[in-house]
Design goal:
The strands form 2 sheets. The protein has a 5-stranded mixed beta sheet with strand order 3-2-1-4-5, with helices on both faces. Strands 8-7-6-9-10 form a 5-stranded mixed beta sheet, with helices on both faces. It starts with a strand and ends in a 31-residue tail after the last helix. The protein is built from 11 helices and 10 strands. It is an alpha/beta fold. The protein has 2 domains: 2-115 and 292-339, ATPase, nucleotide binding domain (Nucleotidyltransferase, domain 5), CATH 3.30.420; 129-291, ATPase, nucleotide binding domain (Nucleotidyltransferase, domain 5, 2-Layer Sandwich). It binds 5'-O-[(R)-(carboxyoxy)(hydroxy)phosphoryl]adenosine and zinc ion (ZN). The site of zinc ion has 6 residues, from helix 4.
């Protein structure tokens, strides 16, 4: 089975071809860093226009890389949300057109489900249920992944996502955009104990995350310490919060593994800390390779493959959904999921 995946929910345009036996035949990606850099963040209208220009050539390139034609594809998977509506529409409409032209089914994929199932693309032994820490630019959640299309949200952020805090810290330190990798690089030559910073909600009885106070605290110390020391201390504070909240969730669930996914999961220090936490709980730790953590279309194709195998396809009038929680039964939390 061969699945074409499309991703366009934020600032990466991507197309990939993935098989149900876990072969990534092609995976193409066009970032938009240069277009958004002057604004220090993603500008939705610029993003949507860039997706329009990039997507079709990327699909053609991916098909050519894989040495296949559209007629050989068994289903087309496209991100249908959540995310910036202009971009989501570009990818979803393109996916619908390709599916219709090829006479193949459409699979409308929740971007978060793409992240959530991505570890199973590279780890065939990862079985349900697993505890997932999903940390990206728009989300910070703990989910019990019980199966394809079956997610129980255990915690979310009450304000900012972890990736958003990385991006804001990079901006405050003048490290550029996107911020996560820049902060990680600066942190490598800094002292994580140099700058006193808060660990919001650490030890709290409630399960959730909060990063707004940490972000504000970074703003107050800029200029008082070396940028490298602020970066390292900030990164350590984020890690301490992630570990504390994840340990709390681990104590209350039966899971086969601790899994991390999403853009922030590309961070080496975050991965190491979570691996050691899993070790102290005698649990398996699984993290996708860094290229599969940040936004890409292979994870969308893979989620499409998993959904298709489960008999889940979607009609061509499926709407784009700027907001789309993975667990619709989870109670609303202040500010959660504000961004993508
Ligand atoms: O999953 P993703 O590519 O897009 C969303 O769905 O949001 O995540 C992007 C986020 C950005 O905030 C980016 O700064 C962060 O992931 N990120 C990192 C690293 N690489 C990307 N954060 C910390 N360390 C990194 N190495
Ligand atoms: Zn993402």
């Amino acid at each position: 089975m061969l699945i074409l995946g499309l991703e366009s929910s934020c600032d990466e345009t991507a197309a990939a071809l993935v098989t149900d036996d876990r072969r990534v035949l092609a995976h193409r990606l066009a970032g938009q860093e240069a277009a958004h850099a002057p604004y220090g963040g993603v500008v939705p209208e610029i993003a949507a226009r860039a997706h329009v220009e990039a997507l079709e050539p990327l699909v053609a390139a991916a098909l050519s890389d894989a040495g296949v034609t559209l007629a050989q594809v068994d289903a087309v998977a496209a991100t249908a949300g959540p995310g910036l509506i202009g971009g989501v529409l570009v990818g979803l409409v393109t996916g619908k057109a390709l599916a219709h032209a090829a006479g193949k089914p459409l699979v409308a994929v929740n971007h978060l489900e793409g992240h959530a199932l991505s570890p199973r693309l590279t780890d065939p032994d990862l079985a349900f249920p697993y505890l997932l820490l999903l940390v990206s630019g728009g989300h910070c959640q703990l989910l019990l992944v019980e199966g394809v299309a079956r997610y129980r949200r255990l915690a979310t952020t009450i304000d900012d996502a972890a990736g958003e805090a990385f991006d804001k810290t990079a901006k405050l330190l003048g490290l550029g955009f996107p911020g996560g990798p820049a902060v990680e690089r600066a942190a490598a030559s800094g002292d994580p104990r140099a700058v006193p910073l808060p660990r919001p909600l650490r030890g709290s009885a409630e399960p959730h995350f909060s990063f707004a106070g940490l972000k504000a605290a970074v703003a107050r110390v800029v200029g008082q310490y070396r940028a490298e020391d602020i970066a390292a201390s900030f990164q350590q504070a984020v890690i301490d919060c992630l570990l504390d909240r994840t340990a709390r969730a681990l104590a209350g669930v039966e899971a086969t593994a601790l899994v991390v996914a999403g853009g922030v999961a590309a961070n080496g220090a975050v991965r190491l800390a979570l691996e050691s936490l899993a070790g102290t709980h005698g649990m398996r730790f699984v993290a996708p390779p860094p290229w599969l953590c940040t936004d890409n279309a292979a994870m969308i194709a893979w989620a499409g493959a998993e959904r298709f195998a489960a008999g889940l396809t979607d009609p061509l009038d499926t709407p784009a959904r700027p907001r789309w929680p993975l667990d619709p039964t989870a109670e609303a939390v202040r500010g959660a999921g504000v961004k993508a």
